[in-house]
Every structure is written in C-alpha cells, then in structure tokens.
Amino acid sequence: MISSKPVRGTRDILPDEMKIRDHLEQKILEIYRIHGFSRIETPAMENLELLLGSEGGENLKMLFTILKRGEKLELKQDASVLDLCDMGLRFDLTLPLSRFYSNNQEVLESPFKAIQIGNVFRAERPQKGRYRSFKQCDIDIIGDATINAEIELMDTTAKALLAIGLKGFTIKVNHRKLLSAIIQRSGFAPETVGSICICLDKMDKIGVDGVTRELLDKNHDDKAVECLMTCVTDISLENLEQWVEDTEAVDNLTQVINTIKSLAKDNFKVVFDSTLIRGMGYYTGLIFEVSYGPYGSSVAGGGRYDNMIGKYNKVSVPAVGFSIGFERIINILMEEQNDSIEKEKSAILFYDPKTDNFGEVIVRGDVWREKGYIINLMVMKKKFGKQIAACNNGHHQGFMVFGRDEEIKFF
Amino acid sequence: MISSKPVRGTRDILPDEMKIRDHLEQKILEIYRIHGFSRIETPAMENLELLLGSEGGENLKMLFTILKRGEKLELKQDASVLDLCDMGLRFDLTLPLSRFYSNNQEVLESPFKAIQIGNVFRAERPQKGRYRSFKQCDIDIIGDATINAEIELMDTTAKALLAIGLKGFTIKVNHRKLLSAIIQRSGFAPETVGSICICLDKMDKIGVDGVTRELLDKNHDDKAVECLMTCVTDISLENLEQWVEDTEAVDNLTQVINTIKSLAKDNFKVVFDSTLIRGMGYYTGLIFEVSYGPYGSSVAGGGRYDNMIGKYNKVSVPAVGFSIGFERIINILMEEQNDSIEKEKSAILFYDPKTDNFGEVIVRGDVWREKGYIINLMVMKKKFGKQIAACNNGHHQGFMVFGRDEEIKFF
User: Which pTM does this prediction carry?
Assistant: First the structure.
C-alpha cells in the first residue's frame, strides 16, 4: 500500500480551515482591489537561470528544481544543477513580478499597482508552523519613485490586516541605507556590512548581549562593536540626524512613519526599528515588517527594490512591495478562534433512495438554494434519530425530510 | 539581460483576464458550495512513487519531476528518474484527492463531497490554447456507490456552467463496461480492448471511415471491425439491450441520462455516446464529458473510479468526479465577449504630490471606498487634459481632483 501522507513539509487543508482561508483571502483581495490594485498571475515555475541569477539570498539554497525532460541527460558525476534542471519553483512573488512587468510593460498602466495571491515554495527544514509550500498575498507598486508608494502599500496592507480581524499589530520601518551608514560610521569596513547585518538580525532572539558576544567572537574591533551597540540602542526617529548624514533617507523614513501614524489612529502602531534587516539582498531603500502578538512574530514584510526590474528590462524601474504571510495569519486567527465569519445558512435534505425520485429531490433542494441556503442532500439511514444527532455538528443549521417537511427544522 | 518570458508552455495572466477569471471562479465555487460540497486543498507536489504508481495513462509521460535535495546524488549514466527525483507536480486533482481522502478519512463526512480548484501540470507539447500549467475545478463524491452520485455531479456541474454563461452544451455519457462488452462481443480478444479504445477515441476527428481504416491497418479481423462499426453507428439508448448483456450498466446509464434530461429542460442536452472513451485508466463505471460549441470541444469531463482509493486505504471506497477545464471555459467566454460581469464602480482620485498632503488624499479616497467605489490614487500630470483622455479606457467610470471636486465627474 502506498503512503497517503502529503510530501514532507507540506500538508492537506481540511474543509473547515479552507472555508476560513477562502473567506480571508477574499477579504484581503477586496481591500486591495478597492485601493486600485489589479490582480495578475504568473506560473509557479520559472526558468532556473532567472531564479539563480536573482538576489534571493538564503532562498536560493532552498530551491525546488525541475528535471529536464525529453532529452537524454549526460549524467556525469560533476554535473551541476543547471546541467540536470531547467526550471525551478518560485520562492517568492517579487522576482516573478519583476519578470512579468518587463514582459508585459507596454500593456500595463503606469504606475502599475499589482496584486498577487499565490503559493511559493522553499525547501526549508520542516518545523512547526513552517511549510515548504505556503501562500503569500502581495501588493506592489511599480514605476513610482516617491515615498507615496511606500505609504500607499503600508496603508492598504494595514487596512487588509484590520479587515480580517488582526488588531494591535506594529509596523516596523527601517532604511537599508541608514543601517549601512550606521555600521560603517561605527568603524566597520564596508565589505563587512552584510555579515554584520546577519548578526544584527538576531537581535529579536538573542538581545543586545547576544549580538555583542557574537560580533566579538568573530574578532571584530571592540570599539566598533561598542559604538554600533550604543547606536542601535540609543537611536530614535528624533535623534536620527545625529547618527546619519544621508538626509534624504532620514527625511523619507520620518515622513513615511509620521503619515502612517496619522492614518493609524489607535488601530495599530508604526515604529522606527534600526535593527530591522529583512533577508532579501534586493532591497534598496525603505524596508518594513509587521509584527504581531506577544512573541512579535512577523506576519508581513516588504520594501523598495529599485534595481531588480533592470535585470530584465532596458531601463531600471522603481518598485516597492508588501507581502502578507497568509499561513502565519491563518495560524493566529485560528488560534484566536476568530468569529469574523458569519454563520452560513445551511441545511440537510434527507431522502430515501428506494422510494424518492432523485430528480425531484434535487429540484426540492434548488427551491431552498434560491432562498440562499446551502442544501446538502443525504440518504436517510435506518437509525434516523442517531443520524440527525450526529448531523448537529455546527455545520448545518437544520434539516428537512423529502416528502414530509415543508420547512427546515432547526437544530 | 535575462529573458523576461515565462517558462515554455506557460503564460502570464494580465489584469483584465484575471478579473474575469476571479469572477468566474467565485461563481463556480458558489454553485458547488450551495450544493453541499466543501473545498479542500492539497500541495502542488506529490511523492513521485505515488504519481508513477497511478493509472494516469498518457499523463505519466508528461510529469514534471523535482530533483532530490540535500544529499549528494549518485549520477550514474543509467540512473532512473526515481534515483534523481523524489517528487513530481500533480497532473490532475483526482489522484491527490484519493490520497487526501485516505489520509484524512476519519475526520471527513461520509459521503464526502469535495471541491478542488487548483492548477495541474503536464509537460505537453506547447500548442495554441494548451498550457503546461492550467486550472481545473473539480467536484467529487467519495463513499456513494449509487448513481445518485453521478446525477448530483452532473446536475451541479451543469448548473455551474450555466451560471457562468455557457449555454447549449451537451453532456455525453458512456459506461466503461459497455464499451468493453461491445468490443469483445464484436469478436476482438479481451487483451486488445485498450488499443481498440485508443482508435475509437479518434472518432470525433477522423470519423467512422478513418477509424475503420486504422483498425484494418492494424491487422484486426475484418468481420470484427465491421461488426464493431455497425454497433457504434447503430447503438442507441433505446436499443442498448440488444447489444449488451450487462443489464446493470444499461440500467444505470439509462436512468442517469433520463434523470438529467428531466432536470436539463432546454438549457443543455444529455446524450449517450458509445464512442466516448476518456483517457484515464482509472475509470471503472460511468464516464462523461461536456462538449460545447461548433467544434464540440471538451470543456469538462469525469467518471467513476471505484478502485483508486483502495491503493492507499485498507478498504476500497467508491468515488466519482467531474472536472471543469477552466482554461477552455475562459478561452470560450473571452472570445464570446461575455458580459455577465457587472461593471464595477471605479474612479480615479488625482492629486498633486507637491501641494497635497498624501495622508489627506488617502482619507478622501476612503470616503468613496466606503460608498462602494474602487478608488485609484494618481499623480496629476502637466498635460492633464491628455491624461484624463487616456484614463477614459473603460477601466474607470470617472475621476475627481483632490481639493477641487466634491463629486465624481463621470466620463
């Protein structure tokens, strides 16, 4: 007998969860759409060269690649993945969008405001709550170099999160250039910025002491480490200009945070977070992340990636994106037993296959479907009382017996 | 510069088409749901052994397989696909559903009425209108051995097709056992049934003469060929019993067709088609297909597959499925310029980034969003008259200028 388990690191989604997922996805899509974003779709697979040529960071180590077909493969012991495979599954929706924009630019509005909702694939080590196939809900604005694009993305994403019942989240904002400036100003060499960022990214988990220890262990200069740690501890939106000279980055950061603050009212928070990193190598400007709950888990993230589209296009095009991690949201809302979903009108129409004409049973069901009910046809069992009791499981509001009941008997 | 084309045999979906797709998908889902079906989801990839062990027929030659990860591969020249790969992309939704049912049986209702909407992948030779990644909308009833399951699937699928604006289609019905009986009764050996079926499947394209020639070319007995051709030409629902002895199959076929006929009224046709084959090896009973339009192209298909779930399960479970080929439907409806989609209320709110406070612009947009409008914020260009003219492109009903217009100016 063949195993009936789904592939390692993935899972089957059951009807109850699926109903919630569909409902939330539609809500998010609706908020995106009334803000003037348009949905597009790209294939789940992309050419392997495109994926490998991206600045996908850690995600490139987690690619699912697809074996070449049709030709007889030269299977030498030193064959590379490009010898064996020609395609891979997408690891995010940003890279495919950049390709899409270049491929279809002439028929798209400018600026182009895209919605993408779809699954992405990463061969991560399986662990609780992390899947190898998971859904993202992205909005991106392509062709707007001003911070109004960032503001619109944050405003729209925040509204979508509020609409699905997530309250009291925090949007953390940082600027790639700020972080790089701070690190260098502390006395680190420019070529170490990347590895310092990887250490700083652990601040949430191991704190200032842990990061300090790690930097010293790596033989970085004591003074530089001390200076950097003082900076990331003391820096705030108010004293930013003391620490960094890039006034444009400072102005942009300040203006975005203040505008979103004015829109947020008491529904959510916006803060400057000098240690926010975001893994992807392709970000060039403002970066942001939504954290939620007591453990501050990240439920959405994004940033500006002005140089990516230039890889497929004659001219470089400015772009910003914000992605909601759908699986995290679902986990949170299912744990919180969210009841933002209205109970549906749903009833069972029982029939006896021996005596009832099934065509007539269907027509009888349709009468109630036209009244807005979900009608589920079911064969009456011998122990009918027991059967009815079992059907009172929260999925149906009541039942009828064909040829006997004119109205629904509610549980 | 890296190519911006999607992978061979796939395509990007643009905003206008996407809007129609989303609308139709929701309509189909709604019809499925009010008939008591519940949506589930399985991963796009399945274990390769499961896919290869299925009776997927021709589809097994078109598998996309995924390279093993993490381990150093033994690349010998005679390595098989199972040496190199551990997973593959699903080629249909029926096989994953069978696995899903076995994996989750104890928490599912019985009979279980499933909805699946998702993409499947086949490495077909690219040709117009055929894609390597395409969407299917399936409903299946698992655990009902009676023909009421077939009737319910046909009724629900027909209603879904009618709801999205497809009228005048034909449901063709046949029974696997009938076809096998007819072929053997004509004088062919049992072991040739499969290859005879492949020839008969071409009836639509090459006609009776073509099929006859092909069978004779393959050195089949003249008399048997003549007898078979007379049979498939003369056979009808009325004289079925003259040709086949399996009275249960005949009864089932007759009863399903008559019941659906009574439900169809003049909206669509139901016919018996003795040459309907359906490629999949796993069908065991009634098989059906929806054809539409002057070329009779197939837009949906399905059948009973009572033995499949037994492969993953201790006990065999009866099952029937009906799958709508979403891409075909979209092609047809886009060619027919279907206007079943209501025009949305949509307007542009122009602003001047130099003088207007962007936060206030957003709040102004929200006022109209609450009235049910899609509001798209846009920067005013210098040549505003020209810009407005370009925006009158059918996507927006009108516009407002921030700080100037209180009401929408309709185009």
Answer: 0.93
Pick from A89, A148, A350, A371 the residue to mutate for testing the B interface (most B CBs within 10 Å): A148
**In the structure encoding, which two tokens stand for residue B342, read together?**
């209501």
User: Can you list the residues of chain B whose pLDDT is less than 50?
Assistant: none
Q: Please state, in angstroms and rounded to a whole number, the distance separating the CA atoms of residues A31 and B318.
A: 42
pLDDT in tens, B247-285: 899 999 999 999 999 999 999 999 999 989 887 678 899
Distance, CA of B127 to CA of B289 (rounded, Å): 22
CA B280 vs CA A183, B287, B302, B303: distances in Å = 62, 10, 9, 10
Residue A289 tokens, joined: 């992340």
A64 touches B: beta carbon within 8 Å: yes
Minimal Cβ distance to A79: which of B5, B75, B151: B75
**In terms of Cα–Cα distance, which of B95, B117, B29, B317 is closest to A13?**
B117
Minimal Cα–Cα distance from B246 to chain A, Å?
22
Question: Which tens digit of pLDDT belongs to each residue from B190-211?
Answer: 998 888 988 888 888 899 999 9
Put simply, whether B323 touches A (Cβ < 8 Å) is: no
Judge whether A263 is closer than 8 Å to chain B, CB to CB.
Answer: yes
Residue A158's pLDDT is 98
Chain A, chain B: beta-carbon pairs less than 8 Å apart = 243
Q: Does A369 touch chain B if contact means CB atoms closer than 8 Å? A: yes
Contacts of B167 (CB under 8 A, 6+ apart): B267, B268
- pLDDT for the residue numbered A80: 87
Of A14, A102, A119, nearest to B107 by CB-CB distance is A14
Contact list in B for residue A67 (CB cut-off 8 A) is 64-67, 81, 84-85
Among A7, A66, A152, select the one facing B47 at the smallest CB separation. A7
Q: Both tokens of residue B250? A: 């005949």
Assign B383 to helix, strand or coil: coil
Task: Encode pLDDT of A303-346 as tens digits.
Answer: 999 988 888 877 889 999 999 999 999 988 888 865 656 678 99
Hey, how many other C-beta atoms are within 10 angstroms of the C-beta on A109?
Answer: 17
| B70 contacts on A by Cβ (under 8 Å) | 123
**C-alpha separations of A216 from A188, A199, A319 in Å:** 12, 11, 37
Tell which residue, B267, B257, B266, has the closest CA to residue B165. B267
- What is the predicted pLDDT for the residue at A367? 96
